[in-house]
Automatic annotation (TrEMBL), chain A:
GO molecular function: ATP binding; ATP hydrolysis activity
Bilayer topology: Peripheral membrane protein
Name of the protein in question: ATP-binding cassette domain-containing protein
Species per Swiss-Prot/TrEMBL record: Alkalibaculum sporogenes
Family: Belongs to the ABC transporter superfamily.
Domain of life, source organism: Bacteria
Biological process annotations from GO: peptide transport
Gene Ontology CC, one term: plasma membrane
From TrEMBL, chain B:
SUPFAM superfamilies in the cross-refs: P-loop containing nucleoside triphosphate hydrolases
One GO process term, biological-process aspect: peptide transport
Record protein name field: ATP-binding cassette domain-containing protein
Family: Belongs to the ABC transporter superfamily.
GO molecular function: ATP binding; ATP hydrolysis activity
CDD domains in alphabetical order: ABC_NikE_OppD_transporters
UniProt xrefs under NCBIfam families: oligo_HPY
Keyword ATP-binding assigned: yes
InterPro entries associated with the record: AAA+_ATPase (IPR003593), ABC_transp_ATP-bind (IPR050319), ABC_transporter-like_ATP-bd (IPR003439), ABC_transporter-like_CS (IPR017871), Oligopep_ABC_C (IPR013563), P-loop_NTPase (IPR027417)
A Pfam cross-reference name: ABC_tran
Biological source species: Alkalibaculum sporogenes
Superkingdom in the source lineage: Bacteria
Keywords annotated in UniProt: ATP-binding, Nucleotide-binding, Transport
ABC transporter domain boundaries: 6-252
Length: 327, 322
């Protein structure tokens, strides 16, 4: 069970816009084991979506993988052509996007969109594919499946559509599922249902999941490992418990303090992170978080800290921790 | 009793939906809601999408005329009053800061507009001073006044919207999901700002959100809405420590606590199914189709909001039983 399904090394992705080069992903390395659930947290613009889209080869112009390699299930993604990529998309790796209302075709029935994926990637006949579609919709907890198959996206609520999206993503039993803010647009009770569903399916199919989110409660609930991203870099990585209860990077600590907590005393002041996220067009020279960091030192503004291993599977990039080791 | 700033009694807002030539059905977005908001407090309103919380906030400001019921401001019935003078007292901050600022006006003019409408400034100089002071109150510098909305990030835009609402020195602001489109670190900045402004000016807020943890953080009292009705209403401390209505209980168990280590072992009370369509809500108790405690009486009778502990109101037939 301990083999790596995904191995990203030194990945750099840039968008070449008229205003200049935007380094959306900056030197990321990540490993994901079979059956593991990895959470990627970060604010908007931190590169979390871009990094995971690259696994499916979904980086569009003017974006480009500048450096590094992505090995997924014995494929080398960055060198694969369009046709080859299409073969693995939906079959070995699938994605569930944030907004189900815009990611399904409004002109096709749910059934035909489901069956399309199945026929494309397997040798099933149309009839077999339909049976599989019925089974899938049942799996994601839908009733009156036969009727539902003929319905169009507008006839579903947001939560139902997200289930359809998940059913489509799971159609060919992928090895890896990327959920890009899959529950963000949903209500709390529906979100809980969907997360529960993902966990069940994961157990059943021994699938790996990458959860992209900005919500720590989702992470706490289903992830085993967490990567915290800021300005295109992974600034802290570790087991969920380590990140939530023993964070080492100032940004992670700040994020956790800024999250309102239901257990905390009412009217206890939230501690916001001052300033606003970095402008990726003109990134700071040193640590990208330095301008917002309360414990910023001179060295932070000058050069980027290296990853510091704290314990097994827990590393972070911060100068503060280096200093401790020197003294 | 004079402490009530806003009070609504049996407020209803129905939206007609044409079905065929003669038949008209109604979406009962707000159905028979009564509540009051004390001076200087923050009243939180939570509920899932489509439960009518936004409509309630808008109807309260008479941005849409209520179908039935009464609205009181400082004891005066304003249900059929022209709103001109009250607009100065009651303001709103909308959810989407990208859509609520005119892209062709500078920030200076956006904030200046309410000052002009209500003739609050006697001279151009005074107007300018007011705008500068408003901007500094929301943490923006004067240079930003000449910029256009597109030059700002979401959090900064929300600050501009708040400055505009504050321009007329209102007593009461409806905050309709003001932070839900913002990043976590920015959310905390804006929430702290709301609290600071409240301390400085003694403003009363109606804080509408679907996020229970934010509402619990900022509110003194909280109302939980489900399909146009208030199902539970109490101070936020007892709502979170001892929720009574099964819907509130499941909402609370659906949000996962970040700081308790036994998360994964916690059995959550998962709700089955989706919210029913507000076009044909279930008979009797509207929550019964998703409720685990459903009984015959829930199908026949609509439960009334009743006080079951001090200042703790719940609308459920089976209140005493669990």
């Amino acid at each position: 069970m301990n083999s790596c399904i995904l191995d990203i090394r030194d990945l750099e992705i840039s968008f070449f816009t008229q205003a200049g080069e935007i380094k959306a992903v900056n030197n990321i390395s990540l490993q994901l084991k079979d059956g593991e659930v990895l959470g990627i947290v970060g604010e908007s613009g931190s590169g979390k979506s871009v990094a995971s889209y690259s696994i499916m080869g979904l980086i569009a112009e003017p974006g480009k993988i500048v450096n590094g390699n992505i090995r997924f299930n014995n494929h080398t993604i960055e060198t694969m052509g369009k046709k080859e990529l299409q073969k693995i998309r939906g079959k070995e790796v699938s994605i569930v996007f944030q907004d189900p209302n815009t990611s399904l075709n409004p002109l096709l029935s749910i059934g035909s969109q489901l069956i399309e994926v199945i026929i494309r990637h397997t040798n099933k006949t149309k009839k077999e594919a339909k049976e599989r579609a019925v089974e899938l919709l049942g799996l994601v907890g839908m009733n009156e499946v036969d009727k539902r198959l003929k319905q169009y996206p507008y006839e579903f609520s947001g939560g139902m559509l997200q289930r359809v999206m998940i059913a489509i993503a799971l159609a060919c039993e992928p090895k890896l599922l990327i959920a890009d803010e899959a529950t963000t647009a949903l209500d709390a009770t529906i979100q809980a249902q969907i997360l529960e569903l993902l966990l069940q399916i994961k157990k059943k199919n021994s699938m790996s999941i990458i959860m992209i989110t900005h919500d720590f409660s989702v992470i706490a609930n289903i992830c085993e490992k967490v990567a915290v991203m800021y300005a295109g870099r992974i600034i802290e990585y570790g087991k969920t418990e380590d990140i939530l209860y023993n964070p080492k990077h100032q940004y992670t600590m700040g994020l956790l303090k800024a999250t309102p907590n239901i257990n905390s005393h009412i009217h206890e002041k939230l501690v916001p992170i001052k300033g606003s996220p970095v402008d990726l067009l003109n990134p700071p020279l040193g640590c990208p978080f330095a301008p917002r960091c309360e414990k910023c030192m001179k060295i932070c503004l000058r050069s980027m800290p290296k990853n510091k291993v704290i314990s097994d599977d827990h590393y972070t990039a911060c100068w503060l921790l280096e200093k401790k080791l020197w003294s | 009793m004079d402490n009530k700033l806003i009070e609504i009694k049996n407020l209803k807002k129905y939206f007609p939906v044409r079905e065929g030539i003669f038949a008209t059905n109604y979406i009962k977005a707000v159905d028979d809601v009564s509540l009051y908001i004390n001076k200087g407090e923050t009243f939180g309103l939570v509920g899932e999408s489509g439960c009518g919380k936004t409509t309630l906030g808008r109807t309260l400001l008479k941005l849409c005329q209520p179908t039935d019921g009464q609205i009181f401001y400082k004891g005066e019935d304003i249900t059929f009053q022209p709103m001109g003078q009250y607009r100065k007292k009651m303001q709103i901050v909308f959810q989407n800061p990208y859509a609520s600022l005119n892209p062709r006006m500078t920030v200076y003019d956006i904030i200046g507009e309410p000052i002009d409408i209500h003739r609050l400034a006697t001279s151009k100089r005074q107007r300018k001073e007011m705008i500068i002071s408003l901007l500094s109150q929301v943490g923006l510098n004067y240079e930003s006044a000449m910029a256009y909305p597109h030059e700002f990030s979401g959090g900064q835009r929300q600050r501009i919207v708040i400055a505009r609402a504050l321009a007329v020195e209102p007593d009461f602001i409806v905050c309709d999901e003001p932070v839900s489109s913002l990043d976590v670190s920015i959310q905390a900045q804006i929430i702290n700002m709301f609290e600071r402004i409240q301390e400085e000016r003694g403003i009363t807020y109606l804080f509408i959100s679907h996020d229970l943890s934010i509402v619990s953080h900022i509110s003194d009292r909280v109302g939980v809405m489900y399909l146009g009705k208030i199902v539970e209403l109490t101070d936020s401390k007892s709502l979170y420590s001892s929720p009574i209505h099964p819907y509130t209980q499941s909402l609370l168990s659906a949000i996962i606590k970040v700081d308790s280590k036994d998360n994964k072992g916690n059995k959550r009370l998962l709700l089955k199914g989706d919210i029913p369509s507000p076009l044909n809500p279930p008979s009797g108790c509207r929550f019964r189709t998703r409720c685990v405690y459903e009984k015959d009486i829930c199908i026949d009778q609509v439960p009334e909001l009743q006080e079951c502990r001090k200042e703790h109101f719940v609308a459920c037939h089976r209140v005493g039983e669990f």
